[in-house]
Design goal:
Strand content: 25-35%
CATH superfamily: Spore Coat Polysaccharide Biosynthesis Protein SpsA, Chain A
Distance between the termini: 34 Å
Radius of gyration: 18 Å
CATH topology: Spore Coat Polysaccharide Biosynthesis Protein SpsA, Chain A
Order of helices and strands: EEEHEHHHEHHEEHEEEEHHEEH
Shape: globular
Bound molecules: 1-O-phosphono-alpha-D-glucopyranose
Largest sheet: 9 strands, mixed
CATH architecture: Alpha-Beta Complex
Length: about 280
């Protein structure tokens, strides 16, 4: 079944400057855990334990985070502080990490293409860790919900959410035919449309399951919005040639790529998870 999950983490994080001048945005903490770790934990919960980090220059801290820090661990060994490493030790025990570097920032589609060798000929997950997704009431993470759907339908799946008009231009937006409650077969997709061009208010959130034919499609996808190779454009080709599903996930999503979403997530996690 699906074991691999790509994390494109090469982006600059300019909205958080100067905090992200020397530190990757994915390492910004939501309370006491870096954003990227939340995403990796969500993937592991879904059984995606082979993690592929698509990194870039200045992102070493992410790779170090998922490695042992002998000096620190030796220092706090046997003390009460050791407990605070429990979650990251758990992640390192369950998952393995492969690293590849995106040399040029040419868009999300290009970032995913960099994972081609890591993934091979298998379906795989993609997590954009800027989107922090917390489980719905049933307690199941978004990737786990999507893996279940994949087992049933065997085609690429994107997570979607209804967004208000004023935010639509920030997302890939789908049009689809509802095949059951909360599940659509995609008929159209537009990357970051103007409101008047948006085919619906259903926006793509940073969780995907992709079938490996997407790589060849991306290779043949010309640069689109903002001159970047867009995953949304490649997915539209896949939808037209076969099937792509869009899934209105159960859970809560925070846009941690924006300062407002980041603060909202911090408050939520502090009140509901950290304080317990
Ligand atoms: C990317 C995708 C976009 C999607 C969004 C979700 O955009 O290109 O289709 O809606 O992630 O967060 P980005 O926010 O990386 O510019």
């Amino acid at each position: 079944m699906i074991k691999k999950c790509l994390f494109p983490v090469a982006g600059y994080g300019t909205r958080f400057l100067p905090a992200t001048k020397a530190m990757p945005k994915e390492m910004l903490p939501i309370v006491n855990k870096p954003l990227v770790q939340y995403g990796v934990e969500e993937a592991i919960e879904a059984g995606l334990v082979d993690i592929g980090l698509i990194t870039g220059r200045g992102k070493r801290a992410i790779v170090d985070h998922f490695d042992v820090n002998y000096e620190l661990e030796h220092q706090i060994s046997g003390t009460s502080k050791e407990e605070s490493l429990a979650s990251i030790r758990n992640v390192m025990q369950k998952a393995s990490f492969s690293i590849t570097r995106q040399v040029e920032m040419r868009g999300l589609g290009d970032a995913i293409l960099n994972g081609k060798r890591l993934v091979g000929d298998e379906p795989f997950g993609v997590v954009l860790s800027d989107d922090l997704c917390l489980p719905g009431e049933e307690g199941e993470g978004v990737m786990a919900q999507m893996v279940k759907l994949f087992k049933q339908f065997r085609c690429s799946i994107v997570a979607i959410q209804e967004v208000p008009d004023e935010l639509i231009h920030k997302f890939g937006v789908i049009q689809g035919e509802q095949i059951k409650d909360g599940l659509y077969q995609v008929t159209d997709m537009v990357e970051k449309p103007k409101l008047e061009d948006a085919p619906s208010n259903l926006a793509i959130i940073g969780r995907y399951i992709l079938t490996p034919d997407i790589f060849d499609i991306i290779e043949n996808t010309p640069p689109g919005k903002n001159g970047e190779v867009q995953l949304t454009d490649a997915l539209l080709t896949q939808a037209k040639n076969g099937c792509v599903l869009a899934y209105k996930f159960k859970g809560r999503r925070f846009d941690c790529g924006s300062v407002e979403g980041f603060v909202e997530a911090t408050n939520f996690v502090y009140e509901n998870i950290y304080k317990g």
